[in-house]
Amino acid sequence: MKADLHIHCSASFDATESVDTILRLAREQQLDLIAISDHNEIDGALELETKASAAGIETLRGIEIDCFFGRNIVHLLGYGCDLRDPGFARLKNHYIEELRRTGKQRLTLIEEHYGLKLDEAAIIARAHGRPYTNVEITQELLQTQIHPDLKPYQTGERSANPIANFYWDQLAVGCWGYAELRLPDWRQVVAYVHACGGALIVAHPMQNLKLDEAAAEALREGGVDGFEVYSSYHDARGRQFYHEFCRRWGLAETFGSDFHGATKPNIVLGKTGFDGDCTESVMLLKERIAHWR
């Protein structure tokens, strides 16, 4: 079995490809199981569910929920839950309002940091009717401005995945460009997704937790069902660390490319860092889902 359980479609604020395109790419990669897991958004996952059977591909319902873990932000992947529960619509609407609230704040921070002025009308146009976010601001910044500190993202060592790399380097929690979102606490997310019949997996833990065993242990004790061990962001050391942690505690291991289309151009759908048979791990994830149902 081949699986990719962390895919974003154009329903997500930061991704570009349609559900139909994702299904085509999944067939090309000969994937057996996929999940669209958009940021605080359910429409893509529900659309996939209606179309995938005709394409001969199994799916899991998925969602990626941004939440606070202490002073840090983690992304928790909910699988198999009832996405039609009204709480998910409230989550989506709250997140959209938070993106709208923080967009202007982040734009101001970037302009002040680099001593320049960006065309806000052009940024709004890039968002195609949605609230503009770090994605559209970064696109406008890197495509229209000249500044020595931007060169790594335009033509240098960070240019293969410029929008995501700029976010992690400059705009994430603890960075000068961080604009604080009002997000739920991770414990609320765990309780809610479990109540909706879903299992909780910590997304790309090397991006948020690094090799922090105490943090991983706190999440385990708090009820998460597993970790995304195999991710396009993880090196061999990170994969081994979280593989061993999951095996030690009987937690589910999952596989996710974090595909976003043109927004993350160097990430290929289906390329998760795992090339073997994922049947055993998928069965364990499904057992966790069945437990909460």
TrEMBL record:
Gene3D superfamilies: 1.10.150.650, Metal-dependent hydrolases. Coiled coil: none annotated. It comes from the Bacteria. InterPro entries: PHP_dom, PHP_domain, Pol/His_phosphatase_N, Pol/histidinol_Pase-like. One of its GO terms (molecular function) is 5'-3' DNA exonuclease activity. Residues 3-69 form the Polymerase/histidinol phosphatase N-terminal domain. This is PHP domain-containing protein. It comes from Holdemania filiformis.
